Amino acid sequence: KRYKAAWTGWSTGRNLVVPLTNNWEQWITNSTGQTLTAIGASGTGIAIASTKTALVASDGTNIVRLTADA
Predict the structure, then answer these.
(1) Are 47 and 23 in contact (CB under 8 A)?
(2) What confidence tens digit (pLDDT) does each residue in 11-53 have?
(3) What are the backbone angles phi and psi of residue 17, rounded to the nearest 5°?
(4) What is d(CA 67, CA 8) in angstroms, rounded to the nearest whole number?
(5) DSSP state of 23
(6) Which one, of 59, 62, 2, 69, lies nearest residue 36 by Cα?
(7) How many CB atoms lie within 10 A of CB 41?
(8) Could you tell me the CA-to-CA distances from 50 to 38, 39, 40, 44 in Å, in that order?
(9) Which pLDDT band, with edges at 50, 70 and 90, does 64 fall under?
(10) Cα(40)–Cα(59) distance, rounded to whole angstroms?
(11) Phi then psi for 31, rounded to 5 degrees?
């Protein structure tokens, strides 16, 4: 599964709220000009730099990074 964030015109970073379901994982590509933070409704999230892609997952409480930004 892949998700690509491609909004333009943002002047600050944004949160991308994702599911906190156990075993959920997703490739996220940040094509915005700002940092994108993948985060659940609670817990901690991870930042994905502009123009980068990362594989992220939920452990049921937090969003965790499975790969470095690529």
Answers:
(1) no
(2) 788 999 999 998 899 999 998 889 999 999 999 999 999 999 9
(3) -80, 125
(4) 25
(5) T
(6) 69
(7) 8
(8) 13, 16, 20, 19
(9) very high
(10) 10
(11) -100, 20
* pTM, full prediction: 0.84
> In terms of Cα–Cα distance, which of 40, 35, 62, 70 is closest to 2?
70
Amino acid identity, position 1? K
Residue with tokens 């659940």: 40
Neighbours of 32 (CB within 10 A): 20
User: What are residue 36's phi and psi, to 5 degrees?
Assistant: -115, 125
Detail the DSSP E strand segments found in 1-70.
2-5, 14-17, 25-30, 36-39, 46-48, 53-58, 63-65
Using the predicted structure, report yes or no on whether residue 7 has a pLDDT greater than 90: no
Q: Which two tokens stand for residue 67?
A: 């790969």
Q: 40 near 64, Cβ under 8 Å? A: no
Count of all residues that appear for the chain in the document: 70
